[in-house]
Amino acid sequence: MDFPFDDADIPAHWWDGDRMLTRNADALHMLFPAGERFFMRSVRAFVPQIKDPELLARVRGFMGQEAMHGREHNRAFSLLERDGIEYESFLDAYENRWLKRLEKRADPLTNLAVTCALEHLTATLGATSFADPLIDRAHPTMRDLMLWHAAEEVEHKSVAFDVYEAVGGGWLRRVVAMVMAFSLLMVWWRRGMKHLIEQDGGMSWADQRGLRKKVQTEGRDVLSDFRRAAVVYLRPGFHPDDIDDAHLARDYFAAREIAA
Q1: CA 188-189-191 angle, 5° bins
Q2: 242, pLDDT greater than 50
Q3: Nearest to 103 by CA among 172, 40, 182
């Protein structure tokens, strides 16, 4: 996609001029590249067991999209560097000293179950992004990054899940994986924001309350959306395609003449 992150017009607080809102988003974006690599490894481990040609084709598309997501978010880190914000120590702790160690200790099917859970949450985030009134207050380049990623998460939301079911993954494991995934996502998202905001004016309780109030009254409360999505996911017989939001991705690609 080659988003123009070197555009000098992108301000340090690129989302509505709001320091807290911007760093909250930056913290989530920091989790994506390593997370996407984990998703790819988790799905790739089961490719030899997939016999359905259609599912294999979808897996190939999934791999390509996830690789591109990681690439573009990595490129966006140049904005933090430009503004003198250090982030590499956080990424090292997150990926090398936690994510990869956890991945090695778990069995491949559990890693895939965690991927399914996180894919459900990122697809939820993607779908709600299109209904978030705050999205248009972001700098155009960053808004385009978020909506492009959102559309592709919605588009491939069921790929990992279908692989999981195809190789015999069951309900109990995916329920436990969702509890783990949800909890750890919240922990590392908050740690990432703390790491960034401490370098950008610090964070008081008043700042936290202000951010919470802003997303609840002016935008979408992502945390509440995640909680509802997690509860739905726990239902026996659930499938990501039960949620009718594929049109959001189709409409996005059609509007921009991007081949889905």
Answers
A1: 60
A2: yes
A3: 40
Reported as half-sphere exposure (CB side, CA atoms, 13 A), residue 124 has a value of 22
Strand pairing partners for 138? 15
Q: Which long-range contacts (CB under 8 A, 24 or more apart) does 56-59 make?
A: 58/156, 58/159, 58/162, 59/159, 59/163
Contacts of 119 (CB under 8 A, 6+ apart): 39, 153, 156, 157, 159, 160, 161, 240
19-255 in CATH: which number? 1.10.620
Q: In this structure, what DSSP letter does residue 229 have?
A: H
What's the pLDDT tens digit per position in 137-149? Answer: 999 999 999 999 9
Question: Which residues make beta-bridge pairs with 15?
Answer: 138
Task: For the full predicted model, state whether its pTM sits above 0.90.
Answer: yes
Structure-block tokens of residue 10: 């992108």
For the chain, the residue count is 260
Cα distances from 11 to residues 207, 238, 252, in angstroms, run: 20, 42, 26
